Write a sequence for this structure.
């Protein structure tokens, strides 16, 4: 199979995984998401994992239902933003609004972006106080609908389940250069949910 078809297949599988996530909630849906991601990372030709023979699964914080909330989208006039990468380059997005939410008694605001290239898609990266220690210093992703990572919404209420936060591919391989969360999307509290770096809990 060509690399193009491999990538097509990979993104379709990710979309299918998230479609199943949207059908269910709770720890059971999350555990299935974890298992299916591990299978994809372990066996698919487009995996970002370099040494799949030693891969035993991605590490996560324990599941916590308190990190599943909804955020209200406050639309704003579209603003073009070039988001820098982990390596060379940048990706152009439109900043379409701000998502306001409360989680674990802390208020948060995150910019919501729309990818301007190849068909578009919602993108929601974030940084928090776990970065550089328990999680990647450049932050994590929560939504990236161009690649199938979509938790859904109801009107202007967007599902934000930080148990599904995940690292960009550049964490696993320097072959990838990934857009990183801009400074405005840094939360001033730790998000102890979702994918984490290996190490003690």
């Amino acid at each position: 199979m060509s690399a193009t078809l491999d990538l097509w297949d990979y993104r379709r599988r990710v979309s299918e995984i998230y479609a199943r996530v949207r059908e269910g909630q709770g720890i059971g849906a999350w555990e299935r998401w974890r298992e299916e991601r591990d299978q994809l990372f372990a066996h698919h030709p487009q995996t970002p994992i370099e040494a799949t023979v030693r891969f035993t699964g991605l590490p996560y914080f324990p599941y916590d239902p308190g990190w599943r909330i909804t955020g209200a989208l406050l639309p704003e006039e579209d603003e073009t933003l070039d988001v820098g990468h982990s390596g060379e380059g940048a990706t152009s997005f439109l900043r379409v609004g701000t998502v306001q939410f409360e989680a674990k008694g802390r208020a948060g605001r995150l910019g919501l972006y729309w990818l301007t290239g190849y068909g578009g898609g919602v993108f929601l990266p974030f940084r928090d106080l776990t970065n550089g220690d328990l999680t990647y210093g450049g932050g994590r992703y929560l939504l990236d609908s161009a690649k199938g990572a979509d938790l859904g919404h109801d009107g202007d209420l967007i599902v934000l389940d930080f148990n599904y936060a995940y690292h960009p591919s550049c964490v696993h391989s320097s072959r990838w250069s990934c857009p990183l969360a801009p400074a405005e999307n840094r939360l001033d509290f730790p998000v102890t949910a979702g994918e984490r770096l290996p190490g003690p809990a």
Observations:
- The chain has one domain: 3-185.
